[in-house]
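Deliverable D4.2, example record:
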Amino acid sequence: MFFYTGYVFAPKIFQLVGWAMDHAKLAVLGLVIWAAVEAALVFSPGFGIYPDHVDLGLAGLPGLRLALAVIGSVALCVTGGLLSKLAAMDWLRWLGEHSLVVYVTFVLPMTYFRAALVRFHLVANVSFAEFAVMVVAIGFSVLAFLLTQRTGLGKWLYERPAWAHIPGTPGSRSYRPAPRIETVPAVPAE
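Output generated by the structure prediction step:
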């Protein structure tokens, strides 16, 4: 349901992000209001973190929980759009454009690095350990992609094969570019 909602409303979400990028001050104000409401609902009476579960206060109610998840995802899209305007975020823009690279590759480094942290008791703080795992998994994924691009070995991991394209689209087996029709400029009559 969550992913289908994203699929159906993607055009509207992109419109909202475009609007937010054009009206940054209002968008930031909206994000601040969203964060305050979200925090109030999460940290309302009943919030607690336990070994086997987390109580989310009012935000844990089934219908409200899904609504807040969708709204939070939209807020992340708006935040990403606003951050993409900053020159200091070029690395994040590149990472977003190559998100498939991270998605395809991150599982193995994430799994092995996490296992190493646990086995050798390298980090006691769980939050820091998860942050380190994320950085290593993303870093390894990007490094593997860059090495693949440089050497050409394993490029198939990051390129969609021709058989997986929609027929008639660029990259598919059946794609034939339209013939170029050159027009001759009309000679003005004298």
